[in-house]
Specification:
It contains 13 helices and 2 strands. By secondary structure, the chain is mainly alpha-helical. The protein has a domain of about 180 residues. Helix 4 crosses helix 7, helix 5 packs antiparallel against helix 9 and helix 5 packs across helix 13. The protein starts with 14 loop residues before the first strand and ends in an 8-residue tail after the last helix.
């Protein structure tokens, strides 16, 4: 499905194999029906990842071990190593799942924005800003909607340890993450085309939005000590300031701010998966 700007709102499907690293992203034309043995292996892999996510949610990453996971699944420890090289490899595979989930959420929120635009008969500039705001909001709202997803992504993207960094690269996380960020770049470029933002380098603005969002999301950890740091208004102030600096009028930003909150609420807060 394409929106009023001609941008595809359908989710990219990241099919990947996690049975042994390095894994890779498959295009639809590369895919073929798995054999019975391959299907069983894939099902086992998914079972392992489901159990790992549950343990990580309950105990945290530092307490997570292959031995603990093996006990949970009633597997021999050696059996798990036939699927993953270690717990960092499991983390990388889970991150692929999370990036895919973000991509699907972006597709959903794109359709929700379009409905809102039609319902409120928003002009093209406001619609473009709302699309940008809702797109970065899908990621920024992870701390509320899927806190464990945010924690797992942050382990690699914000962790300087070489081991995790290598596993992320080997598992192919960076490519689908780049595609997800590419959606945001497309929205930013469209905002320029309709005159909502002044001309600027879309990829650079994408990195500014993503990087500054990381900062706000990290600050939320301190929200229990200082309520201001956990307040949603902090993100609103960040985005309004950036968008105003890129040329968006104040009245456009106010309409978009009110609308984006309602749009993101429709994504809900389902259980971690």
């Amino acid at each position: 499905m394409r929106d009023r700007f001609g941008l595809d709102t359908g989710a990219n499907t990241f099919q990947h194999t996690c049975v042994s690293l390095p894994t890779h992203t498959l295009r639809s034309d590369d895919m073929k029906k798995p054999t019975r043995r391959e299907q069983k292996r894939l099902e086992t892999t998914e079972r392992i990842l489901d159990a790992a996510m549950q343990l990580l949610t309950e105990d945290g990453y530092e307490a997570f071990t292959i031995a603990r996971l093996a006990r949970e699944l009633n597997y021999a420890v050696g059996a798990l190593y036939r699927y993953f090289k270690g717990k960092d490899a499991i983390l990388a595979a889970l991150q692929l799942r999370i990036v895919d989930r973000i991509d699907r959420d972006l597709a959903v929120v794109g359709e929700l924005v379009e409905r809102r635009v039609v319902r409120d008969t928003l002009d093209s500039k406001t619609a473009a800003v709302l699309h940008v705001w809702a797109s970065i909001g899908v990621y920024e709202s992870l701390t509320r909607r899927h806190p464990m997803h945010h924690k797992l992504l942050s382990l690699s993207l914000g962790d300087p340890r070489e081991l995790i960094a290598n596993e992320v690269v080997d598992a192919g996380v960076l490519e689908p993450l780049g595609q997800v960020l590419g959606r945001l770049t497309a929205r930013l470029d469209q905002a320029v085309e309709v005159g909502a933002f002044v001309p600027g380098e879309g990829r650079q603005r994408t990195m500014v939005l993503w990087g500054s969002s990381q900062g706000v999301m990290q600050l939320r950890k301190l929200g229990r000590f200082e309520p201001l740091l956990g307040d949603r208004a902090l993100a609103d102030e960040l985005y309004q300031g950036l968008f105003a600096g890129w040329g968006a009028p104040a009245e456009t930003l106010e309409v978009a701010r009110r609308a984006v909150h309602e749009v993101l609420l429709q994504l809900g807060t389902p259980a971690e998966s």
